[in-house]
Amino acid sequence: MSLSTALNIAQSALQSTSRQTSIVSRNVADAQNPDYSRRTAVVVSTAPGARVVQIQRAASEVLFRQNLSALSSAAGQKALSSGLDRLDMSVNGVDNSNSAAAAIGKLQEAMQLYSATPSNRNLADNAVNAARDVVRTLNEGTQAIQSFRAQNDAEIANAVDDLNSLLSQFEDNNKQIQSGTRAGRDVSDALDRRDSLLKKIAEYVPISTFTRGDNDMVITTKDGTMLFETVPRSVTFTPTPAYAAGTTGNPVYIDGVPIVATPGAESTASGRIAGLVQLRDGVATTMQGQLDEVARGLISAFAESDASGGPLPDAPGLFTWPGAPAMPAAGTLVNGLARSISVNPLMDSNAGGNPELLRDGGANGAGYVANSAGASYSELLIQYADRLETPIAFDPAAGIGNSASVSAYSSNSIGWLQGLRKDASNAVETTSALATRSAEALSNETGVNVDNELSLLLDLEHTYEASARLIKAVDDMLVALLAAVR
Fold first, then answer.
1. Does the pLDDT value for residue 266 go beyond 60?
2. Which of 24, 259, 355, 388 has the smallest CB count inside 10 Å?
3. For strand 253-254 and strand 257-258, is the pairing parallel, antiparallel, or unpaired?
4. Are residues 381 and 481 in the same domain?
5. Which run of H or E residues covers position 58?
6. What's the CA gap between 426 and 69, in Å, rounded?
């Protein structure tokens, strides 16, 4: 081997060692970056003594897919759990202090006190005031639910905008990867960026991916809807500016296919958007139905009947609604009834009415008078109190059975929401743990181990020393040769 060949070998070794060292240094620098995949410098020998460093990026397609799926589930459950907490606080208040059940409980107490002393007008006023609090709770609860739905609608609109922005960024990144792959350039940084974008996209909708030639990637949703293929597919949503009971929110469309969220607090639907849709159109509308059914039950419980047992139909008494003097249909949900229910002004002293009509009857005419000639009897008051504890038919569409007393039904509504919150909270813990573990497994496979990298640096240092000795030996030989020639 000639001296020039030995020198070329040494120079090639120094160059490859320098490249390897820079890769290891980059690995160490980005060891804490969760979106960074470890680079490996692979040395390939070509001509005698010549060495080329090729960069390989660590990847695990299986673990990455699992991580994307876990991220979607965790994001959907977090959105659902957080929304349930906000809904509970806005409707029921701290420790359910603002709930319909709490207000009905106070009304029952006021009715018991009044029935014990039916001649006391102050107690009559207290009972009507308690009824007014029940109405306020139902009215404000409805308003809170519809405000909550409008807020969710705005959050869905923001999520759709974010998703479209991410898909636009993904398009630019995907083009960069394709052009770099065709040109033979190192596209590791661009691939890291693409994986980071995929993780963010997966938080909004569950996705599947596959890679074609030149590292071109295609994205579909879990149900097979095309999300990205060469160009982003359109994700569209038309917000609803205001909500009322019975208003149906607009769906989110991906390439013309609507996102569908399943019911329940442990929904199989994944992604933040599906969680928000479920809150808006599933949980909130069901809870509104329960308030409407409580309102219907109250109107029924305090309805006035023909005092003589004659043919006069029942009519709203203490609680009334815009459809009076007719009664709401039994066992049938009336959308928005909790918002329109009110205290009968004929019994409300604040509206110039007589609260003692609650004891005597007659708000709907003489045929409904139970206590005549000014007699202070409590039978009618006791009947009203008993009706609050007597099972009646409820619409099963409201989600908590078809038969219960008004008092029990209002309490069951609280239990229903608390059950959803508990299920959602448990699901958040499960899905978050899965997301964390899948990320750890992926990191173990593709992340950087600083100890290993530092050990590799020591090996590269030894390689550098060997190359330096070879150059020194060649230099000594050349010096000796030139000295001999002189």
1. no
2. 388
3. antiparallel
4. no
5. none
6. 18
Nearest to 281 by CA among 69, 83, 74, 75: 83
Are 99 and 216 within one domain?
yes
* Cα–Cα distance measured from residue 229 to residue 482, given in angstroms and rounded to the nearest whole number: 67
- 443 inside domain: no
C-alpha to C-alpha distance for 7 and 481, rounded to whole angstroms: 15
Instruction: Please tell me the distance from the alpha carbon of residue 100 to that of residue 294, in angstroms, as a whole number.
Output: 8
Residue 440 lies in a domain: no
Mean pLDDT on 386-399:
94
As a whole number of angstroms, the distance between CA 198 and CA 163 comes to 11
Share of the chain above pLDDT 90, in %: 69
Least confident residue range of 91-95, 206-210, 335-339, 459-463 = 459-463
**Residue 466: which domain range?**
3-58+453-485
Q: Average pLDDT, whole number, for the chain?
A: 88
Closest residue by Cα to residue 169 from 133, 125, 199: 199
In this prediction, residue 452 carries a pLDDT of 80
Residue 251 CA to residue 265 CA, distance in Å, equals 20
CA distance 240 to 237: 10
Statement to judge: residues 69 and 51 lie in one domain: no
Number of domains in the chain: 2
Residues 84 and 54 in one domain: no
What does the alpha-carbon distance between residue 337 and residue 260 come to, in Å, rounded to a whole number?
28
Report for 110-119, 260-269, 303-312: range of highest mean pLDDT? 110-119
Residue 445 domain flag: no
Same domain, 140 and 196: yes
**Residue 400 and residue 471 in one domain:** no
Residues 79 and 146 in one domain: yes
Q: Are residues 304 and 340 in the same domain?
A: yes
β 226-229/319-320 pair status: unpaired
> Alpha-carbon distance 127 to 358, whole Å?
9
Alpha-carbon distance values, 181 to 20, 36, 56, 174, 480 (Å): 21, 19, 13, 11, 49
- Spatial CB neighbours of 35, under 8 Å, sequence gap ≥ 6: 192, 193, 195, 196, 199
Instruction: Kindly state whether residue 447 falls inside one of the protein's structural domains.
Output: no
The two three-digit tokens of residue 394, written as one number? 């409820």
The DSSP result for 231-300, as a single string, is EEPPEE----S---TTPPPPPPEETTEE----SSSS-S--SHHHHHHHIIIIIHHHHHHHHHHHHHHHHH
In one letter, which amino acid is 481? Answer: L
Q: Are 317 and 364 in contact (CB under 8 A)?
A: yes
